[in-house]
Amino acid sequence: MNTLNHFATPQLELLHRGKVRDSYRAPSGERLIVVTDRLSAFDSVLETPVAHKGAVLNGLAAFWFDKTQHIIPNHVIALLDPNVTLAKEAEPIRVEMIVRNYLTGSMWRGYQQGQRTFSG
After folding, report:
1. DSSP secondary-structure letter at 75?
2. Average pLDDT, whole number, for the chain?
3. Which of 67, 107, 108, 83 lies closest to 22 in space, CA to CA?
């Protein structure tokens, strides 16, 4: 099965290689974001890539960026390939959060009582 585990091109400058995405400088100054089939879990990249994972991830991101562009402009210019997005340079807003599907136990009881800060 074909997988995109590694992407390399001598024509473009590599800006960043992450656990799943690689960023390159496009000749026009935009950023080329390549979403690979590498699998990341628990802050590690696992040995075996998952076929079409990058295309699915890229497609999901493109879907939601398209659906929310009327709310706020985003960086997406075009999808050049199922795994590749051409994007405007942007300054990232660094936020990390964990979203849970449900609350149970003492957190749920605290939330019902108006508490909104848990675990510091």
Report:
1. S
2. 89
3. 83
